[in-house]
Design goal:
three-stranded antiparallel β-sheet, six-stranded antiparallel β-sheet, elongated, alpha+beta, Arc Repressor Mutant, subunit A, 9 strands, 2 domains
């Protein structure tokens, strides 16, 4: 943030910042971030709201510096302001981040038994993934038990939401504007000859996902790998993640795919019900 240009290091008392990170080669820009975060922590410590003068005093900042930092936090939604006395309190963005964190941790804990069961029932590789910003993030991967197995990616971020079953299962239920934002941010890399790389084609594919209740990656991310994915929904009906099952094409006859698709849909429906999904209850 540009507020660093207005901050004089002499504004802060040494004892007030002695327990905060020392300056790095980035210097004053990092210091401004540290000060802004410290103000957020102080608001929380002071019961969720505090005046400008109290915050400046507790933070060891002059009024002007504290005001500029708080103004930036207000503009970003992390702090809100009320009344002529310049009372500041935690903003809606804090709740949004907190909810996302709790939901992600809850998703991992609650999904783990379903992934283990699918892994045991099918013997195939299973994944749990979610969308964080524009990144498709694999949270859990359980390896296949078969002698012939697939290397279906790793835990962590990828730019393959358009080319994977978990990614398509999530994208299909996003508002179209949000889905297009993700695609614009990450692009539509061609991983194989089967990868869908045009938006029109993907939109049509996502219509099939919504109609069928599951997504299919037909060797779109890796040659020789078929992957099936289905969304996990919460109490609002919104998508919070997806589970997938990957299998090599040599086992992927239609009867086998129908079997594992049924197990996958059953698992994601049951997990969604645990999150209170009204969609799952009607399924």
């Amino acid at each position: 943030m540009r507020m660093a240009d207005t901050i004089d290091p002499a504004d802060a008392l040494p004892q007030a910042i002695s327990d905060r990170p020392a300056a790095t080669p980035e210097g004053r820009a990092i210091q401004s971030v540290s000060r802004a975060l410290h103000l957020l922590e102080l608001i929380a410590e002071m019961g969720g709201q505090a005046t400008l003068s109290d915050l400046a005093k507790r933070a060891g900042l002059n009024i002007s510096t504290a005001h500029h930092l708080l103004a930036t936090l207000v503009a970003r939604g992390y702090v809100a302001r009320a009344g002529a006395r310049r009372v500041y309190y935690l903003g809606p963005k804090i709740l949004q981040l907190s909810t996302a964190r709790v939901r992600q941790v809850g998703l991992i804990d609650m999904a783990a038994p379903y992934l283990r069961r699918l892994n045991e029932e099918t013997g195939e590789t299973v994944h749990l993934a979610t969308l964080q910003g524009e990144d498709l993030v694999t949270l859990i991967k359980l390896e296949a038990h078969h002698a012939v197995r697939v290397d279906a990616g790793t835990v962590g971020k990828s730019n393959a939401a358009h080319a994977t079953a978990t990614g398509k299962a999530i994208l299909a239920w996003l508002p179209e504007r949000e889905m297009l934002r993700v695609l614009a941010g990450k692009g539509m890399t061609r991983f194989t000859g089967n990868t869908i790389t045009d938006v029109t084609g993907l939109i049509e594919e996502l219509r099939h996902v919504r109609r069928n209740g599951f997504a299919v990656d037909r060797e779109e991310f890796q040659p020789g790998v078929i992957c099936l994915g289905a969304a996990v929904r919460d109490h609002t009906g919104g998508v919070i993640g997806a589970i997938s099952i990957s299998t090599p094409t040599l086992r992927a006859d239609q009867a086998y795919l129908d079997t594992i698709t049924g197990l996958l849909k059953q698992a994601t429906r049951a997990l969604s019900e645990e999150f209170g999904s009204p969609v799952a209850e009607k399924a």
